[in-house]
Amino acid sequence: MLKVPCNMLNDQIQAITQCGFMGRGSILTCGHQRNAVVLDSGSGFGSLNKGPIMAVVSNWIVGSGTGSGSGTLADRLTEDGLSYKEIFIVRCYEVGINKTATIETIANLLQEVGCNHAQSLGFSTDGFATTPTMRKLHLIWVIARMHIEIYKYPAWNEVVEIETWFQGEGRIGTRRDWILKDYATDQVIGRATSKWVMMNQDTRRLQKVSDDVRDDYLVYCPREPRLAIPEENSNSLRRIPKLEDTAENFKRGLVPRRADLDMNQHVNNVTNIGWVMESLPQEVIDSHELQAITLDYRRECHHNDVVDSLTSVDAKAVSKIEGTNYGSTAATENKEDLRQFLHLLRVSGDGLEINRGRTEWRKKHAR
After folding, report:
1. Catalytic residue flag (residue 301)
2. pTM reported for the whole predicted model
3. Which of 31, 177, 235, 335 could form a disulfide with 61 if both were Cys (CB 3.0 to 4.6 A apart)?
4. Which residue segment(s) compose the domain that 24 sits in?
5. Residues 53, 159: one domain?
6. Could you tell me which residue ranges the Acyl-ACP thioesterase N-terminal hotdog domain spans (predicted)?
7. How far apart are CA 174 and CA 134, in angstroms?
């Protein structure tokens, strides 16, 4: 991928502006973010061919202004301020054996956008979106369930737009949803939803959401419920049974690396997704690709835990996903092409549950 050194920046700006790729008043500044591209209503990107230019601007932040600074996180809020959008380029180190982004890459991007959204609203990043009231009471959000559906995996150097928003979930917590789009075509390529509960950071006990905490964040939530994945007939709500020692496939002795720890000093939830994959049969990895994953998070995993990953065929699974993927059922029309599995991550020795999971796999098609 083309990288533009800072001392060449002015020449690049002039060349791009002369070609009409950028609207008036747009600037490029050296950015510190991984691969985000920030677009605003004045950037003029809406009608251009979105492919070639990204090779030039992928390492820069695009904003509007008259000369100082880059676009801020707040600039990425949608017009009504109730959701947040960010654009990413898939890097070569984020793709796997299929030459497309891995599910871990997708999950990391979802987490990145969610954290950036919270930061854009002025929430703290030291405890993942803690509000002022939560910080006073030593409260943090922890994930309880994550469900991701991928209809088409982006390939290396393709551009993905991710929109996210959050809303209340009764007295027990909140939910955050995402929609992923192919930026070049505006096609929806994935959806995700998650549920979060509140925990006391000192006691590690769950706590109900108080009115004071709700008042902190409800002003930023959609006025009416907005669900990326409608819950009627949705696999995102299906109960996940516990696997026992009779599971068909095992991977024992998985050990967290230091790099796997997050800001809350426990193993990042994306690491758990990778561990789930470790016990899948190789023939499934070779012949199929993941189309949906659901994880229930049962306990924290710490740096000194040793983890076992268990996988078995989901014998009670329905023949295909219904009602959740908005017309993308073509990938699963053939019942023989769909494989479904149950998963368990547990602490070695005492058997304490870390995660229960369910995955759905469709037959790979030639790219």
Report:
1. yes
2. 0.78
3. 31
4. 6-71
5. no
6. 82-217
7. 14
